[in-house]
């Protein structure tokens, strides 16, 4: 005789559980992380739990590891033998280094081996001395260092994806409100309240359709606004030589741009080193009055003043602004050094504030939640009393469930 043993995997159990584990994992990221991962040291983590200080919103991000060369900035690279790489073959090469980072709301955070934590990867906008910008970056980034800097900062692009109707529908339908509506429709249908269930269904479908249309329309409008009015190529100084027709998405902090005499639309935040420029900042400020930008002033030897885009905004041309005209002296070209790229620029921060608005703490919302909890407590008492009453009268289980859930 043989004995057959049947096992039920999690994949097979999902249809039986009606997708409840997926809903719980979607609504409670902490629980999903606790069920699928184990706690470890920060430098070993493959998945991180991020908690917003003010709103207490929870996010889960995945840490990426990429191999880098010897020219990569040392503080953002770690030896593979000390990282969490599960590939034991990497232990044979102690010189193999990795770049560990994650993306959160379009901002890149890299592992800093000096401070032993993940830090936002910045350009030249913080902690860089003005004397350093004037001397070391006047000729642009050396050709040998460019690939490493592009790997560190990523492409200089602000891309806003347009979600499909299917993804929007799934995201909308899985909201707790619509899950509650679905349960209500099912309950009233089982209790022969077909007209009432039909009304809830029709109103819910109209609400979902309107929400999908508005969300998609806003995403398309934002995408078109970001993509419009951006130059595709520019002239860059590398090793002191001018390279024309360089793709703007390949710009990195430290690149020296040669601004054309006829003007252009900036794809990055840059500080003027030579000449002057008249720009239109209506994209950022809403004011169409032209503003004159002057070159960064030369400081006395030994000065340790650091550059800040807000403090030195008279010398900074921000991304999204239109350069109307440049002014130069003699044969000298108008040169600006890139200080921020991508979503780190002023235009990128504006787009991020639209995509991820700061949560507003309404007193009305908090009071509404408390009011619902009071009603839920009263309903729970009524449900328990209803169940005990129907049990004492010998009612069917189906009748007990219908009446108890109806009260709840």
Can you walk through the features of this model?
The chain is α+β, with helices and mostly antiparallel strands. It has helices at 10-16, 20-27, 29-36, 130-136, 146-153, 165-173, 176-190, 194-227, 282-285, 346-355, 363-392, 397-407; strands at 47-51, 58-62, 64-68, 78-79, 97-104, 107-112, 117-120, 233-238, 241-247, 256-258, 264-265, 269-272, 276-280, 291-294, 316-317, 322-327, 335-340. Helix 2 (20-27) crosses helix 3 and helix 6 (165-173) crosses helix 8 (194-227).
How much of the sequence lies in strands comes to: 15-25%
What's the Cα radius of gyration? Answer: 29 Å
Average of per-residue pLDDT values: 86
The percent range for helix content is 25-40%
Structural class based on helices, strands and sheet pairing: alpha+beta
Distance between the termini: 52 Å
Order of helices and strands: HHHEEEEEEEHHHHHEEEEEEHEEEEHHH
Number of helices: 12
For the biggest β-sheet, the strand order reads 9-8-10-17-12-15
Low-confidence stretches: 1-10, 84-92
The total strand number stands at: 17
Shape: elongated
Largest sheet: 6 strands, antiparallel
Per-chain topology:
Layout: H1 10-16, H2 20-27, H3 29-36, E1 47-51, E2 58-62, E3 64-68, E4 78-79, E5 97-104, E6 107-112, E7 117-120, H4 130-136, H5 146-153, H6 165-173, H7 176-190, H8 194-227, E8 233-238, E9 241-247, E10 256-258, E11 264-265, E12 269-272, E13 276-280, H9 282-285, E14 291-294, E15 316-317, E16 322-327, E17 335-340, H10 346-355, H11 363-392, H12 397-407
Antiparallel strand pairs: 1-2, 3-5, 4-5, 5-6, 6-7, 8-9, 8-10, 10-17, 11-16, 12-15, 12-17, 13-14, 13-16
């Amino acid at each position: 005789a043989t004995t057959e043993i049947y096992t039920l995997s999690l994949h097979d159990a999902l249809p039986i559980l009606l997708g409840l584990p997926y809903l719980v994992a979607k609504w409670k990221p902490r629980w999903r992380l606790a069920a699928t991962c184990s706690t470890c040291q920060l430098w070993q983590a493959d998945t991180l739990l991020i908690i917003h200080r003010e709103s207490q919103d929870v996010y889960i991000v995945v840490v990426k590891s990429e191999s880098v060369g010897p020219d990569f900035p040392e503080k953002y690279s770690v030896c593979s033998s000390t990282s969490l790489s599960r590939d034991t073959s990497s232990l044979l090469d102690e010189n193999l280094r990795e770049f560990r980072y994650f993306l959160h709301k379009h901002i890149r955070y890299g592992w800093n081996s000096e401070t032993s934590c993940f830090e936002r990867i910045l350009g030249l906008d913080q902690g860089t001395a003005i004397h350093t910008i004037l001397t070391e970056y006047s000729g642009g980034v050396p050709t040998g260092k460019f690939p490493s800097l592009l790997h560190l900062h990523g492409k200089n692009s602000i891309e806003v994806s347009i979600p499909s109707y299917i993804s929007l529908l799934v995201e909308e339908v899985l909201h707790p409100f619509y899950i509650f509506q679905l349960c209500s429709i099912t309950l009233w249908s089982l209790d022969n309240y077909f007209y009432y269930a039909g009304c809830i269904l029709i109103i819910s479908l109209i609400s979902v359709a309107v929400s999908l249309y508005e969300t998609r329309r806003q995403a398309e409008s934002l995408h078109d606004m970001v993509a419009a009015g951006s130059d595709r190529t520019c002239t860059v100084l590398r090793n002191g030589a001018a390279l024309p027709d360089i793709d703007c998405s390949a710009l990195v902090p430290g690149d020296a741009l040669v601004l054309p005499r006829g003007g252009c639309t900036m794809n990055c935040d840059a500080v003027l080193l030579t000449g002057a420029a008249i720009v239109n900042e209506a994209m950022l400020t809403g004011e169409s009055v032209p503003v004159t930008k002057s070159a960064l002033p030369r400081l006395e030897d030994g000065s340790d003043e650091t550059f800040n885009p807000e403090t030195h905004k008279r010398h900074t041309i921000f991304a999204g602004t239109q350069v109307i005209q440049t002014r130069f002296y003699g044969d000298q070209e108008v040169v600006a050094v890139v200080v921020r790229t991508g979503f780190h620029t002023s235009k990128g921060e504006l787009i991020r504030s639209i995509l991820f608005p700061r949560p507003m703490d309404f007193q009305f919302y908090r009071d509404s939640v408390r009011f619902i909890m009071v009603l839920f407590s009263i309903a729970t008492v009524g449900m328990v009393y209803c169940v005990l009453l129907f049990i004492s009268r010998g009612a069917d289980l189906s009748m007990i469930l219908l009446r108890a859930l109806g009260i709840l």
